[in-house]
Amino acid sequence: MDNINTFRQLYYTCKEKNKAIYEVALDYEASQGEYSEYHVRLQAKKSLDAMKDAIKTGLNCTEPSPSGMSGDDCDKLQKTSAKSILGSTPQKMMKYALATSEQNLRMGRIVACPTAGSCGIVPAVLIAFAEDNNISENEQINALITAGEVGRLVANKMALAGAVGGCQAECGVASAMAAAALTQMRGGSVKQIINAVALALKNILGLTCDPVCGLVEIPCVKRNPFLAIHAVTASELAMADIISKIPIDEVVDAMEQTGQLMSPLLKESSQGGLAKTKTAIALEKNILK
Amino acid sequence: MRQASIIDIISPVMAGPSSSHTAGAVRLGLLARNVYNAKPDKVTFKLYNSYALTGKGHGTDKGLLAGVLGFSVDDERIKNIFDTPEAQSINYEFEFLQDFNRHPNAVDFIFEGGLNFTVSGDSVGAGEILLTKINNFSVNLSGKYNTILLVYDDKPGVISKVTGIIQEDKVNIASLYCDRSGKGKDASMCICIDGDLTKNCLNNLSDLKDMYIVRYIRKLES
Ligand code: SF4
User: Fold this and answer.
1) Does residue B46 share a domain with residue B10?
2) Is residue A113 a contact partner of residue B9, using CB atoms and an 8 Å limit?
3) pLDDT of residue B155
4) Do B127 and A112 touch (CB under 8 A)?
């Protein structure tokens, strides 16, 4: 099988073979010799199950994180009396994103997807939508593999690490992956899925990584529900056949360049941005004793 | 470099909160454990730089200890590792240091027991790790391959004898990395292989003259 290193190659392979993204992705993995289709599907199922467990545990827990800075936001959102203007599925996504991220801080079991800091985004979008729309487990696995293929193609160009590309490379990529999974489950075409990815990524370019006290906590936890909804927006626009004028591969190039241009002070070093605010410095004195 | 696979993107299932500071720490501990290959009486962990500064908040200390005790990255007992019977059965100590000549996420494991061993490593990002030093020798161990570690008297001809023995097992050598403490002194060899080595082959390696240490370090599960 020919190399698939870009979204363009992925798109044309899907078209030529008249296959979905996850089908081509599975064929490609198998052709690389390391993982068979069975192996990838098995891991996807294992990850999906772990994601569901983390959500379930997180929804019922208010234990604070070791730093004491967070742990009760999911509970607050579940108890709010304010009427949601987004509707129940997006609100569920926000709850699931918080539940997973808070579990992560409590050293609970989560799935790094693609990273631990961004672990709430893909499960929230995928599982909340699947529950509310009777999506079968098999289709959920297909959606997760679609998301994985998106992450793989971006990772081909740049490391998915805040220290290398800022948070655009972690939560940003997670959001693009979630947009792909969601559009897949909604029956979107290959073109619509790829456009959802492009729209999601394009609109988080420049997102920095400036965690307070050097912990994967502030702003990471609350960033997860934000970027879950970002994925919904991307999918909604793409399903209306709205096209990213800049093709996805060029968006990825732009993201890589933006990551390189970003000051090291804003790439997981906690030496700038939020991490150096007056409040953050005060928190640091309290926590890192 | 190996290209990413979908599997890398949608896994691992791990105990949070950080792939480099928690999962990476567990994996460093697991690989150091495979190197030491015995139950130590005592382990001292020296954490450097970011590992020292933000390690507590990320459970890096717990992860390192859990790894040395053989817990896997997704084990929820890591959170309460200090209270487990496994942890209570050995002595351990943590030191938190700053040294800007070291990697931001660096650690030394000092094993004491029947043998004394110092193993150093770095968590290089996204849960990937690298052991860089074993005692005085530099090494290059990522845990992705089964690896043979040899320490021997630096004499001509050892490398060809060693590769000859490995060839008999019909396994392919993926990489070979040598270092020595000085001409005619101790030398070390790290041989990463595809596949698995037989007991017999390891015995033949141990039987070579002037071999001090022969270790078969198994790769980590991904
Ligand atoms: S801000 Fe940094 S540490 Fe937090 S999720 Fe984003 S990339 Fe990860």
Assistant:
1) yes
2) yes
3) 86
4) yes
